[in-house]
Amino acid sequence: MRFSSAITFLSCLFVVFLTGIPPLLADTPLPDIGQSGSSILTPAEERRTGETVVRNIRRAGGILEDPLLTDYVNNLGYRLLPFADNPAQQPFQFFLVDDNTINAFALPGGFIGVNNGLFLATESESELASVLAHEISHVTQRHFARAYENASSNQIPMIAAVIAAIILASKGNELGQAALTSVAAGNIQQQINFTRHNEEEADRIGIQMLNKANLDPAAMAKFFDKLDKQSRLLGDNVPDFLRTHPVTTQRVTDAQGRAAQLPHPKLEDDRSYQLMKQRLRILTTDNPAELLQHEEADIKAHPLNQATLPQHYGYALLLMRLQKYPQAEAVITRLLKLDPHRIAFLLARAENQINSKRLDAALQTYETALKYYPNNSAITYGYVAALLQAQQNKRAKTILDKYLKVPPSNPEFYQFLAQTEAKLNKPAESHEAMAEFYYSLGQYHQALEQINLALKFPKLDFYTLSRLEARSTQIKVDILPGAETESTDRKKYQNLLMH
Question: Were 447 and a residue from 164, 397, 435, 495 both cysteine, which residue would form a disulfide, CB within 3.0 to 4.6 Å?
């Protein structure tokens, strides 16, 4: 069972309800999704459910942890959010799924996943943004809560089953495949009928968001229609995105009509999109040597200028992948002459300098980049990694303390902090940081073990001790949801998980 198949089931059936949960769920931490008598999911319950799913996807190795690409997709998402319905009710997080199939999905609580394959299938920033706008609308319109409200009160949310199935199925486990099959055997027709209304609403609101964000409102219909036409040529190999977001001629026509009624904006330069698409293409290619032969011919035919910056950037990354560092440096130097403050080019230079064993030069490049873009996630990530390599632990700690005032989307920052604290002879703080790393991966038992190790160190000050004890209590709640306030329904729910 492919990882993408598990995600497809999740996005298609996220709120279908089953009358029971299979035994394979016993060891999987599940979100607290409210008691069976609840009439609607609260925003807090939606957020908790989404967080749990994302942690488990990350634990299964399904998230592409590239700081630069993650920054880009989040910046694009947040460009749209001010124009969404009820955007301020909750934070959003956008992430790339390391899968080459064409798919995207929304999770409860403001989590939006986009597969590598879908990103590469788009041809403009507006097309990629149209998918994000559509998925954002699923969240802001609270389609998850509506489906929960429509479910019968004596059923357990299917989302818990899929969380466990994702972990198993992504590793080729037959139990995972069986679980997903049983999930699919639920009340499918009711979910499809309900989804059609949601899709129409998400289309309508998403198109308005695109227009207000100065993106092409016609891009949604164009992209969906393109996928639909391509899928007809593929027979049964329909993109996963179309399985979870069924496209009809009427739906495309309606989207085209809505876009035609809006003023056509003067589109901004989408250079960042083109650069990031090149980056994703190079990072995910299975045969960089073969690709290089094609790229070299293309580069010779298209000399460097503002229009061909993305192609030459991709060429530099490809040279770096193949350890041709002097050639890569020459290309990066030419790129920076044309666009000296571009984050992608500065990071490429720093990475190439590290690969070329020029660590001091790389640190200078990172410091320059941080002056242009203070607290930038991708720059901070590379800079801290380089500082640790250079044994500049106090400087790394200073940077991390500033950056981690807000929880990061990339859990590796906590690993950096754990390494830094250990090198500064602060073992309790090191274990605490590792606890946050494991927690971000959904590995709650390992997180609790790290907190317990931290608590064993003598002479902890009152503030540190209180913080560790509070975190221990919270993690225990996440391991056994609802531990503080047991109810008859909760006990029945937990008994199901233990059998």
Answer: 435
